[in-house]
Design goal:
four-stranded antiparallel β-sheet; 2 domains; globular; alpha+beta
């Protein structure tokens, strides 16, 4: 469903978002996957230099500082940072940001309702593909939605130490996750393709969700490798209780190719967000976002 435009800004949003309902989202994302892996030097150098200039990418913070040092655009986009480029607030009492980006929303669920944008909510049930065990523990919990722009570092890290017990791949649409689309497409994060990882932590359950989007050529995790493409229409659930995977706080979790969104959900009694954080705040990976309750 799309919100009817009534103002100048609403009309601009409409013009940005409406075409997404009719374009071949998955085919275009497959094309992006292929284009970003071309190793022809003039092509990849042009792409990298154009994005660095257009989005003011701080390439001096990366391990490799020039376009020629990368074998493809995707190699640039999934770049590693230099040691010391970020300040890591590693402490079992801290919740740290898993990504560079911006806070889209942050707060507490009202029952199973999560804020998507002003005047728009969606449900934990749909976000977590109706996983009853996770929903029961995470209802009324704390959440934050973190947006990664094309200029950002695109590797995802662990906000806390966790033991992976389940992952769920959910097929879906590939709408953009920019502000205009978030404001106007109902249930955006619950209708887009996503990869849900459910962890047991020292202070309760945590879900870390990678949300796919148009032109996000791939999603990967450190334990599974590439998840998409290929795209599928099938829900895929993996259990890890007998063979748990433990990831330490700050350890790499996975990465996107191109920008997208990460959503964190914690149990109700687990934590409190820092009071000064608000929607639209810029964040860096390793930055403290909250405190674990004793």
């Amino acid at each position: 469903m799309f919100e009817t435009p009534t103002t100048g800004s609403g009309i601009m949003d409409f013009l940005k978002v409406w075409p997404q309902y009719i374009i071949p989202q998955h085919s275009l994302s497959k094309l992006m996957y292929w284009l970003t892996r071309i190793q022809f030097k003039p092509w990849k150098n042009l792409l990298i230099k154009s994005v660095v200039k257009l989005y003011n990418v701080e390439l001096e913070q990366a391990e490799r500082e020039t376009a020629k040092d990368y074998v493809s655009f995707n190699d640039f986009f999934t770049r590693h940072l230099k040691q010391g480029a970020r300040t890591w607030h590693l402490d079992k009492k801290n919740i740290i940001s898993p990504v560079d980006g911006a806070i889209s929303q942050i707060g507490q669920l009202e029952g199973n309702n999560i804020i998507q944008a002003k005047g728009k909510t969606y449900t934990l049930n749909t976000l977590l593909a109706n996983d009853a065990d996770a929903i029961a523990k995470l209802s009324d919990g704390f959440f934050t939605t973190l947006y990664l722009s094309p200029r950002d570092y695109h590797r995802i890290h662990m906000p806390v130490r966790g033991k992976l017990i389940k992952s769920i791949y959910v097929p879906g649409d590939l709408f953009a996750v920019n502000n205009a689309t978030v404001r106007n497409v109902d249930n955006l994060f619950a209708r887009n393709e996503r990869f849900i990882s459910i962890f047991e932590t020292e202070f309760g359950l945590m879900a870390q969700i990678m949300v796919g989007a148009i032109f996000v050529g791939s999603m990967e995790t450190v334990w599974l490798g590439q998840i998409t493409p290929p795209y599928t229409r099938q829900l895929i659930i993996r259990e890890y209780k007998d063979n748990p995977i433990i990831l330490e706080q700050g350890q790499e979790f996975g990465h996107f190719n191109m920008g997208s969104t990460v959503i964190l959900v914690f149990e109700k009694e687990s934590l409190r967000w820092l009071a000064n954080l608000k929607a639209s705040d810029a964040i860096e990976v390793g930055q403290e976002l909250g405190k674990v309750n004793n």
